[in-house]
Amino acid sequence: MSTDTSYASHKLHEPLRSEKASNQHPRSATPRIPKWRKYVHLYLPVVVSFILIISAEKLSQRIGFSRFDRGNTLPIILASAIPTYLLGSTVYPSNRPDPTPEQSIRFTRRKDIYRALVLLTYGRLFGTSFNFIFYGLDVLCSFAMDTVIGERPIGTPQRRSEFIVACLWVVGSWILHQVIPFSTPIVGLFLGIAERTLWRTAYVALVDDVVGVLARPNVRRVRGKVTLVLVQSFIITSFNYLARSFLKRLVSEAMLQKEGISAEA
């Protein structure tokens, strides 16, 4: 008799438990946001940069900026960050949850290949030829510099800007060179390697800060929105400057080759 009663009681409470669980499930589960919406502020400036590389001059002429800036496209490139931000804000989730400690890890610290690829772009941006030995030393010294500068443990409050910290190290190295002259060749060699590593560390930290702002911007505050627009303007301007510099180098190299061929003939 008691067995039948307990069985009936269990059956009676089972629908109530399942209904309670179903009511609590939507509250505890966070909605999944598509990646294209989460990272819209990250990839949209890159898309706008390529569009302006092709059509900045024509667009400046149509708007009428060319009458005042004599063909200079810098004003329209700088101002393009505002419509870029407004367009991205239409799809970016404003109620995005706070990042977990694992999500707060810097971009180049998540995987070693990320840092290796970032270091690969350092000299290539300015036309320096690739040297595998120097590149390998740059990668090894970059990881060694982490132990010198120090990394915050996962789960603890991270630095607001790794780039500022790296710049302080660069300034400190420069002051050390000015105050204490080193005439020994061996000491000068090691100091040159350290200075080279610090500059690349600052570059990697700049990439981390830029990716951090664009991938997870603080759009809840006005300061965060202004920072986002400024960083997007920096990205668009930098991409256009590097692209135009690359095209100028190609043209100059082609002209030199043409002059060399004509001189031989």
Query: The biggest beta sheet, please?
Result: none
DSSP strand content: under 5%
| Overall spatial form | flat
User: What proportion of the residues is helical, as a percent range?
Assistant: over 70%
Distance between the termini: 113 Å
Overall radius of gyration:
27 Å
Count of discrete alpha- or pi-helical segments spanning 4 or more residues: 12
Number of domains: 2
Uncertain residue segments: 5-28
Mean pLDDT: 81
What's the SSE pattern? Answer: HHHHHHHHHHHH
- Beta strand count: 0
Structural class computed from helices and strand pairing: mainly alpha
Transmembrane segments: 39-56, 76-95, 116-137, 163-191
Biased composition (Basic and acidic residues): 11-22
Keywords: Membrane, Transmembrane, Transmembrane helix
Region (Disordered): 1-30
Question: How are the elements arranged and paired?
Answer:
Blueprint: H1 2-28, H2 35-38, H3 40-63, H4 66-69, H5 74-79, H6 81-89, H7 107-110, H8 112-124, H9 132-149, H10 162-179, H11 185-215, H12 222-264
Give your account of this protein's structure.
With 265 residues, the chain is mainly alpha-helical. The chain folds into 2 domains: 34-96 and 217-264, no CATH class; 106-215, no CATH class. It contains 12 helices and no strands. It has helices at 2-28, 35-38, 40-63, 66-69, 74-79, 81-89, 107-110, 112-124, 132-149, 162-179, 185-215, 222-264. α3 crosses α11. The model is unreliable at 5-28 (pLDDT under 50).
